[in-house]
Amino acid sequence: MKAASSLLFLFLCFSYVFAFIPPRNLLLSNLSQGKFLTNQEFWFNQTLDHFSPYDHREFRQRYYEFLDYFRIPNGPIFLVIGGEGPCNGIVNDYIAVLAKKFGAAVVSLEHRYYGLSTPFDSLATENLKYLSSKQALFDLAAFRQYYQDSLNAKLNRTEVENPWFFFGGSYAGALSAWFRLKFPHLTCGSLASSAVVLAVQDFTEFDQQIGESAGAECKAALQETTQIIETKLATDGKALRAFFNADDLEIDGDFLYFLADAAVIAFQYGNPDKLCKPLVEAKKAGDDLVDAYAKYVKQYYVESFGVNVQTYDQKYLKKTAINEDSSSRLWWFQVCTEVAYFQVAPSNDSIRSSKVDTKYHLDLCENVFGDGVFPDVDATNLYYGGTKIAGSKIIFSNGSQDPWRHASKQSPSPDRTHQH
Length: 420
Ligand SMILES: *[C@@H]1O[C@H](CO)[C@@H](O)[C@H](O)[C@H]1NC(C)=O
Ligand SMILES: *[C@@H]1O[C@H](CO)[C@@H](O)[C@H](O)[C@H]1NC(C)=O
Ligand SMILES: *[C@@H]1O[C@H](CO)[C@@H](O)[C@H](O)[C@H]1NC(C)=O
Ligand SMILES: *[C@@H]1O[C@H](CO)[C@@H](O)[C@H](O)[C@H]1NC(C)=O
Ligand SMILES: CC(=O)N[C@H]1CO[C@H](CO)[C@@H](O)[C@@H]1O
What we know:
Rossmann fold, two-stranded antiparallel sheet, binds 2-acetamido-2-deoxy-beta-D-glucopyranose
């Protein structure tokens, strides 16, 4: 998801979710540099709690609009959904091509709590209780109405509805599908790219897909590397962590999760050779596999990709001050309360360490957010339908090498068009 395999779609406001790969990273910002259709900000007064009849607090939510291609007055409006990261503008990508072709206006709404759309000045757990996909969908609905009304006012008309179409990838892809499900009267259809619509507690398929994508030789080298690392961690953990410039990751699970994610990123973003080539070569030459892996992690994942090692540190995730890496805490909160997608090691043949298990994730949720915080994935799937989502006019696209596709909808539903 997140864009995975061969960089399917890089919408910037989002979605490069998670392995947990912290959203702000150089790869994506490099790709988008100077490539915005617009980054001029607008603000909208959004309701904080859409589900309370007596709480009328509001917060400022950021959005963007691009009207150069708009066929006034009746062209379509494309809404690009912001996901689990700051939204710094409307990226000039394939959506721009479609907008030009269809004479569409393009608007994009930043997801609540991320970037500058923060309702509170502290991210204490108590303040996060309005951070959920359900509130986010309602934000989109309220914004859509506000924008349509403003447009009508500008054009001296009332009661007119332009055709709206929603776009999103990864987590925002799930929002795109769920929006069409919950608010079918507000959009003609949705593109749900690599959309993680299925909440999964023990997401073992994730690691299995990495094994498949790696191929036998690279997979074996990765597994051997994990084994050596586990042994070294038990005997001289301090030196091993220092070797990876990850001294702060004192909890073994944090460290092992960081190392697992580092491998994932090569496959998820379509660069398997960056990892597999040096590792397989080291193995053939009888060189130290941990050396080769550490070099990849430091040079590729940390330096080029721009990951902040601290974002794997639970001590850091507990910090409630808002900073440029707040997305990590915010996304973990969503994971820990709604959707899980815990990327645990499968019981057999796994690549990541078996210490990255369900207990590790549940402990993290409680340690970072407080006692009793855990995701009720059954409730989430009951609410949205999981892969049995009963919406219409939703286009699901997915990438064959994308480990996230196993939380997405990979086969079409029986034809429902006669019902709508
Ligand atoms: C991103 O840009 C920086 C600075 O120009 C460069 O050092 C880095 O290698 C780039 N990263 C990628 C993944 O291209
Ligand atoms: C949003 O709320 C603020 C503070 O209540 C108010 O000053 C401002 O005019 C509102 N903006 C809009 C567009 O309604
Ligand atoms: C809208 O109506 C007002 C008042 O009738 C008029 O002054 C204005 O020019 C109109 N604007 C447009 C865009 O037609
Ligand atoms: C474990 O994985 C190996 C390799 O994929 C496979 O051959 C074997 O059948 C699996 N064993 C079990 C118990 O699933
Ligand atoms: C690789 C993969 O999973 N492809 C699937 C993506 O989704 C379409 C439509 O649902 C399927 O037909 C593909 O097989």
